[in-house]
Amino acid sequence: MRRRNLLAGALTLAGTAVAGRSLAGCDHSPDPSDLRLMVPNPPGSGYDITARVLANTLDAAGIARGIEVFNLPGGGGVAGLRRLAYERGNGQLAMMMGLGVIGAQSASGSPVTLQEMTPIARLVQEPAVIVVTRDSPHRDLDTLLSAWRADPAAMLIGGGSSVGGPDHLATMLVADAIGLAPTRVAYRRYDGGGDLLAAILGREVAFGMSGLSEYANQISEGHLRPLAVTSADPVPQLPAPTMRSAGFDTVFNNWRGIVAPPDLADSDAESIRTLIARLHAYPGWASARTRFGWTDGYLPGPAFRTFMREESDRWASVLARLGLRG
Hints:
It is a single chain. By secondary structure, the chain is α/β, with parallel strands linked by helices. The protein has ten helices and ten strands. The termini are far apart. The relative contact order is 0.19.
């Protein structure tokens, strides 16, 4: 299926690694344009969209031109995390990440964790959206939830994250809010938004739960119908109620940020943080956030490390409360 309009500018940037280019660390502060940004999910995922919009905005602002974005999917982000650990001290590499990587590292028991990485900044926050095909028999949220409660085993739910990731958490929180035991939910994990979109359009699942930006284009073109969003307030460009306005006490936001390899020189870490600080101050980045339904989540440096640790503890507690872990 062709993806047009909304992502056209962002997706014109190069998305694959340059063959033979060394990722070895260097002992000087890199030019910002030398930075390579790894996406630990396939093209079309929320991380991928955010990374390419970021690179495109930096280029348009003249802050850094031609930043290379490349994809290294696998394990819900764990493959990218391991690659980042291998590139210890490399000041020319960073990785887009978010709540999904926290969930994936926990679910996989990965010996490599985000706490080892160099925190750069949290960037944005984004609600989840419940979507169905335009010809789905579930015309509104009430119809969908009634069918789900009546026979949860027959309602396969698709998400683009592993256990503990944003799509999984949003699904389970909605189930809990409507009185459906999360342990009864039939959740199928797909490797990112692209695979999930194919499953939704192919009617492999009854509905999909995903980040708003991943399917904003399909919603605006009428290929998908949004039934609800998990934000606290309505999203102006989205013709769907919030879960809260529909009478359910569910507010959930995913977030995305950037980390770099471990043991970065202070000058290299500061160079990348300065780059992101300049992006945050640029008006075009605020416009991009509005366009994609993101809210500002900027949190730089060590404060971001503390936030990631707290998020890991918080969501582990939520999963335990819902009977989904330990």
